[in-house]
Design goal:
Layout lengths: L13 H7 L7 E4 L6 H9 L5 E6 L2 H13 L3 E5 L5 H8 L3 E7 L4 H5 L25 H7 L2 H12 L4 H14 L5 H12 L10 H11 L2 H15 E11 L2 H14 L18 E3 L4 E2 L2 H6 L7 E7 L1
Parallel strand pairs: 1-2, 1-4, 2-3, 4-5
Antiparallel strand pairs: 5-8, 6-8, 7-8
Bound molecules: S-adenosylmethionine.
S-adenosylmethionine binds next to α2 and β2.
């Protein structure tokens, strides 16, 4: 697992996060997606001497980077695992939670390392697990899944219109030989869909879908949003950066319900809904300068809410 030598990490929408972040420098904060620590380092530079920051990540490489940071800075601790271990982290630190940041999805080093199997541009084992020590790899899942389950995943998580044709071809191909490299899968998808549009590989949507499924990304997000609402102290803030419409929709619907705005079924008036969170402004997008510097920020959407 190598990292490109010239890799420079640019935390996405850092200025916008800091503008909306709580003002209590000696509070307790969680970075639920430590990654390579870009946001965490900026938060530590801002944090006061009595402040605490706990990082969470399920990726062993991210955890190794964070352990080095924890050895340098006693205000910081790292917790390996899925971010929906949030209540355990809060209990371990034992302080009221002032803020939580989630910068969702995969990190650039994960995408760029062929050995992790996330990239359809570089050949590697078809893995795609953020934590390679747990669960099934993409190759293991594709080797055993029913055709209709593969089609459903491609449709639901990738919004892939030709999901059935791709699933059919995967099932036919795996009878002939194992489908266990990224380029074998990317080539198979291209053979079904053709070359696609310029600048967008035809395998983009399917790779996104399989990655979301293998890592149970939307299940973990659903859990952590509920937990954040329950664990935050009153006035504490939740900041979420999403990178695709499925994640952002989930955050938006969670906030709608937490703000007591769930649509009422017709003819069946419900009691008034409790107001648990308050959105701080509308969803924000990265600015043109950041997008020019860091193209990955192009699809970022930031939502921030405060516990009431
Ligand atoms: C976009 S990167 C975060 C980058 C980070 N903000 C930075 O500045 O370096 C997302 C990170 O979150 C981790 N991650 C994604 N989903 C997770 C989950 N459900 N539980 C724990 N970690 C997760 C990934 O392993 C990855 O390291």
């Amino acid at each position: 697992m190598t990292q490109p030598e010239q890799y420079v990490h640019q935390p996405v929408m850092l200025d916008e996060v800091m503008q909306m972040w709580p003002t209590e420098r000696d509070g307790f904060y969680i970075d639920g997606t430590f990654g390579r620590g870009g946001h965490s380092r900026a938060l530590l530079a801002w944090l006061g001497p009595q402040g605490r920051l706990a990082g969470i990540d399920r990726d062993p490489q991210a955890v190794a980077t964070a352990e080095a940071l924890a050895a340098e800075d006693e205000r910081f601790s790292i917790h390996a695992g899925r971010f929906d271990c949030l209540p355990d982290v809060v209990a371990a630190v034992g302080r009221p939670l002032t803020g939580i940041l989630l910068d969702l999805g995969v990190s650039s080093p994960q995408l760029d390392d062929p050995a992790r199997g996330f990239s359809f541009l570089r050949d590697g084992p078809l893995d795609m697990r953020m934590d390679p020590s747990r669960g099934e790899s993409a190759a293991e899942w594709l080797a055993r899944a029913e055709e209709h389950d593969i089609a459903n995943v491609l449709y639901r998580y990738g919004e892939e219109k030709r999901s059935r044709a791709i699933a059919r071809r995967i099932v036919a191909e795996r009878e002939r030989q194992p489908l266990d490299t990224t380029l074998a899968l990317a080539g198979l998808i291209e053979s079904v869909l053709g070359r696609g549009q310029p600048g967008k590989h035809p395998a983009t949507r399917s790779f996104q879908a399989i990655r979301i499924h293998v890592n149970q990304e939307l299940e973990a997000l659903e859990q952590v949003l509920e937990q954040a609402q329950a664990c935050l102290a009153p006035g504490g803030r939740l900041a979420v950066i999403s990178f695709h419409s499925l994640e952002d929709r989930q955050v938006k619907l969670f906030l709608r319900d937490a703000e007591g705005r769930r649509p009422q079924p017709r003819g069946l008036p419900l009691p008034p809904q409790p107001v648990l969170m308050r959105s701080l402004g509308k969803a924000r997008l990265a600015g043109a300068d950041e997008i020019a510097r860091n193209p990955r920020s192009r699809s970022a959407v930031l939502r921030v809410a405060e516990k009431v």
